[in-house]
């Protein structure tokens, strides 16, 4: 009893001593409680036939009915496939680009030129998706600049980039790369900043060229960062970016481009099927959680630290 009292007294003294630090922590803590944890209580409607007029307590309980619909409805399965396929393309093509850019920037000797290139690469990140899609529409529409260039050059008919379902996924990936690749280099450049220049100097003495230095020094220095970011990316594998996809969709590309986020919006918000929309969101969260745990376990099995 005396030990517990002593610990409580020490805790109170520490809380009082560092009270100003805890006050600085309070706004962030309140943000997560109000906007992250309290809304989780609303997940109960995923197991109900929710009606806003009857409320959470009086809505009919239907159990796993909405979750069964996820795996039985052909439309949901198609949308789920679109989501997984798009996420795979983003991991395969958009994820490695910042790594390559960071290595290329790290190889630049002129600091002034390096800063200029970085600024140019960072700039698209600060544009909203509305602006990015607007620019893409102006360039890629049937009478746009791209068609005006390629039509006389290759002697072909104008291509309807924005209406052809086959062009939807490639355009989404290219837009993501153009907008976010430069910004994604920041973390990798920060990792490379901690590499001692003596390692490169020793490699030069041993006769290693630039490619050998990149392979044996630069890439190993990035390995832990790459694995951690890849694990976090796997946790959002069912999040394809609502705003970008929503702005890109039209009646011609709806089948090829409709993903879980937009499907939930169309069904859950526009058609007021709140319970099913919540069930899909909860399903996404569980899948992301499982993928993060699995990827983290694999990373540790192969000798890396992982996220936790």
Features of the shown structure:
16 helices, 308 residues
Overall description:
It is a single chain. This protein is mainly α and 308 residues long. Helix content is 74%, strand content 1%. The chain has a two-stranded antiparallel sheet with strand order 1-2. The protein is flat, with a radius of gyration of 25 Å.
Query: Which structural class do the helices and strands define?
Result: mainly alpha
Low-confidence region ranges: none
* End-to-end CA span: 34 Å
Record field, number of beta strands: 2
Question: Strand order, biggest sheet?
Answer: 1-2
Give the mean pLDDT.
Answer: 87
Topology:
Elements: H1 2-17, H2 19-37, E1 48-49, H3 55-58, E2 60-61, H4 65-72, H5 74-94, H6 96-107, H7 111-122, H8 129-140, H9 145-154, H10 165-193, H11 197-205, H12 210-234, H13 242-248, H14 254-257, H15 260-270, H16 274-301
Antiparallel strand pairs: 1-2
In short:
With 308 residues, the chain is mainly α. The protein has helices at residues 2-17, 19-37, 55-58, 65-72, 74-94, 96-107, 111-122, 129-140, 145-154, 165-193, 197-205, 210-234, 242-248, 254-257, 260-270, 274-301, and strands at 48-49, 60-61.
């Amino acid at each position: 009893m005396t030990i517990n009292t002593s610990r409580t007294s020490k805790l109170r003294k520490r809380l009082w001593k560092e009270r100003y630090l805890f006050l600085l922590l309070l706004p962030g803590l309140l943000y997560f409680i109000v906007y992250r944890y309290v809304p989780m209580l609303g997940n109960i409607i995923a197991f109900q036939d929710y009606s806003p007029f009857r409320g959470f307590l009086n809505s009919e309980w239907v159990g796993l009915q909405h979750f069964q619909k996820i795996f039985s409805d052909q439309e949901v399965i198609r949308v789920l496939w679109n989501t997984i396929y798009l996420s795979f393309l983003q991991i395969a093509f958009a994820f490695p680009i910042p790594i390559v850019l960071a290595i290329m920037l790290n190889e630049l000797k002129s600091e002034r030129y390096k800063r200029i290139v970085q600024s140019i690469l960072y700039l698209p990140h600060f544009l909203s998706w509305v602006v990015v899609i607007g620019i893409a529409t102006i360039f890629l529409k049937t009478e746009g600049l791209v068609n005006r260039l390629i039509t006389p050059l290759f002697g072909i008919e104008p291509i309807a980039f924005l209406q052809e379902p086959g062009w939807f996924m490639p355009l989404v990936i290219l837009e993501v790369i153009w907008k976010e690749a430069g910004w994604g280099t920041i973390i990798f450049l920060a990792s490379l900043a901690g590499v001692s220049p003596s390692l490169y100097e020793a490699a030069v003495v041993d006769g290693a060229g630039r490619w050998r230095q990149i392979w044996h020094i630069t890439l190993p220095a990035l390995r832990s960062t790459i694995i951690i970011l890849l694990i976090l990316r796997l946790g959002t594998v069912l999040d394809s970016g609502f705003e970008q996809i929503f702005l890109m969709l039209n009646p011609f590309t709806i089948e090829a481009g409709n993903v879980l986020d937009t499907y939930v919006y169309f069904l859950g918000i526009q058609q007021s099927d709140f319970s099913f929309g919540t069930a899909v969101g909860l399903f996404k969260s569980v899948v992301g959680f499982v993928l993060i745990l699995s990827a983290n376990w694999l990373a540790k099995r192969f000798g890396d630290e992982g996220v936790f």
